[in-house]
Amino acid sequence: MKYLKVFLLVIVCLACIFLAVYLSGASIVPNLLGKNANSVAVASSTDQTLLDQSAPSFDLPNTSGGYVTLAQFLNTPTVLVFWSTWNKLALDQVKILDDYLASGSKDAGLVSFLAIDSQEDPSTVLSLIRRSGYQVPFALDTYGDTSDRYHIKSLPTTYFIDRQGVVREIYSGILSQSMLVDKMEQIIKQ
Amino acid sequence: MSLYFLINNLGFAFGMIGFITLLIAAWLSYDAYRLQRDAPVLLRSIGFVLFAVWRLIDAVNINNDILSYIALIILLAGLVLLVGSFLATKKLALNAVIVIPAFSAFGSHAYVLSAILLVSISYFSLRQWKREYNRTWIPFSVAFLLFGIASFLGSLGGAETGFSYILGHLIELAGSAFLAVWVWQYMRLRISESFVMISFGVTFILATIITLAFSTILIGRVSTDTSANLLTDVKALGLSIDSLKEESLAKAELAATDPGFADAIAKGDTISLDQLSQRLLDQYNLGFLTVTDDQGVVLVRAHALARAGDSLAGERAFEEAVLQNPIATIEDSSVEGFSIRAGAPIISKNKVVGAIIAGFPLDNVFADRLKKLTGLEMLVYKNDTSVASTLFDVDGVTRLVGAPLSDQAVTDTTIAHDTAFTGPTMINGRPFYASFLPLTNSDGKVVGMISAAESEQNIVDIANATNQLTLITVVLIMAILLLPIYMVSKRLNKNIS
């Protein structure tokens, strides 16, 4: 009887600890994983038409006078970010992507990135890119054809495409670096 | 040395004192267990060890999520064992032990739970005093009550330089002192244990002092170097901004001499205006280029073609341009925001027919570029309110802009007295080492500030890493030195017996 009480007490206390850690952890884990409640709400409002479909092809001018096509990214997981200079959130998304590439992460070398400027005059975009010093690869969708094919309704929108060229995730809204890494890891594994 | 560094090091010192006291208490408990072979006393001893481990992890401030969670579990498990040992003991021996260190770490849930457990232990020990008429429990009970209060203060959160944080640490130190009094009551009765424990305690106290001395010297050095580097960087930024003003003015004047503008304005040819202005924006690498008529109505913005028709009348760059007095200034505008702006007149047949306003926005992109060049966080202020920043909120997606600077010393020095400021300051509630340089308009009036900042946390992280390494090294050295003392004390004890 003497030890039964101790035993019961220990059980109750351990249950309390588990509950406290579980409750604390529930609010912390999303941050650790780079997810938050808002992101779920935003993501659910994204046009998911292309999910699990082959990514539409494109052939767009880049910022160094050449062209960039989707075919160039075949056999490599690819992240496409649709943005525009006038949209502050989209611009911040490019900055977050640039910070990630500058961090020298190993995963960054396993994935191709392309920031596609949507429906803006090239001189405006080029002026900003020069001014910023961002090292993200850019493409110019001046007339919005590619944006239309990708069903872009809001900026920024990010597409995660696997090695086979299949769209694995579509995210509307801004992604933090940890969220970006989390989603990238998923397409690297696929 | 800034307050933040001071508190960080004091927190380390207090934590180490708590750790030493707890470990001695654990030793005494174990010793009591050896005599009585009573399971609850063993539980108590394990509880103390777990607390001591948590106290050490917390004191050395390891910034690792996994380790922090493990430490939290260790802390709570230790507390539970201590409470359990009290409840399970029907008749407590006088030399039984119960102690608890202080808190200062994670989630508020854990803090509150810990506070409850600590106060419970205080209550149980008080009850024990009443039951046994044994006054030796009083310091023990007070110690736990103080730890409980410190833990509750920890659950309130707040900045590390905040009142509750500092008060919590002071209460925690007082709790450790009461605990030491309680421990000493038993220590003084035992020659051998006293000898070893005193040596052990002195070892850790010396290790703490040496560690603190090293980290204080290091932090002082790093702080001085950081201040000097920041001042140099921000002065270089000042020169860059002056050169951007001159560049804007030269390019605006050059663009205004292009006869295409006067022709297009005369003909009302907006397509030519669009094409020409975009070509020049690209050619001159400007941040923006705006063409207005002689009344200030925007005919084209090369950087935002859709935005035209508004008026720049009243803006200094335009007003001076149409007076044929080209200038470069820093001012706010509706589309480009706070920016370096130069104005030059477009002249046709000796008459001003319009103006070119060109320059560079002092926006987030500008701040990002500067961060790339310097590696420092950059902020631009319009008056005392940030309009551009490289800093993001904890969510990782929200730029920290729009907040006024709370440090009156900075605004007094930089804005009121047009002088650079360098030193520790709070930016958006976070401690930074920062330099602020005034931004002036064409009249020499201060209209804002540019700041280069280095997070104090980065410097404290260096200090904490030094603390950890120095502590381990010193403790290892002293432990080796302590071994012969322990053996001698054991022999002495045997001889006395």
Gist?
The complex is a heterodimer of chains A (190) and B (497). Helices cover 44% and strands 18% of the residues of chain A.
The tally of strands of chain B reads 10
What is the H/E order of chain B?
HHHHHHHHHEEHEEEHEEHEEEH
Which secondary-structure class do the elements of chain B indicate?
Answer: alpha+beta
Instruction: Report Rg of chain B.
Output: 33 Å
What's the total helix number of chain A?
Answer: 6
Provide the succession of SSEs of chain A: HHEEEHEHEHEEH
Can you tell me the CATH architecture of the largest domain in chain A? Answer: 3-Layer(aba) Sandwich
Query: Percentage of helical residues of chain B?
Result: 55-70%
CATH superfamily of the largest domain in chain A: Glutaredoxin
What is the CATH first-level class name of the largest domain in chain A?
Alpha Beta
Mean pLDDT over the residues of chain B: 83
Give the amount of beta strand of chain B, in percent. 15-25%
General description of the model:
- The complex is a heterodimer of chains A (190) and B (497).
- Chain A has two domains: 1-33; 42-189, Glutaredoxin, CATH 3.40.30.10.
- Chain A is built from six helices and seven strands, in the order ααβββαβαβαββα.
- Chain A has helices at 2-33, 37-44, 88-102, 122-132, 145-149, 177-189, and strands spanning 59-61, 67-69, 78-83, 112-118, 138-141, 157-161, 167-172.
- The radius of gyration of chain A is 21 Å and the shape is globular.
- With 497 residues, chain B is α+β, with helices and mostly antiparallel strands.
- Among the domains of chain B are: 3-189; 247-361, PAS domain (Beta-Lactamase, 2-Layer Sandwich), CATH 3.30.450.20.
- Chain B contains 13 helices and ten strands.
- Chain B has helices at residues 3-36, 39-60, 65-88, 108-132, 137-155, 163-187, 191-256, 259-267, 270-284, 316-322, 364-374, 408-416, 456-496; strands spanning 288-293, 298-301, 327-333, 337-348, 351-361, 377-382, 385-389, 421-427, 430-440, 446-455.
- In chain B, the strands form two sheets. Chain B has a five-stranded antiparallel sheet with strand order 2-1-5-4-3, with helices on both faces.
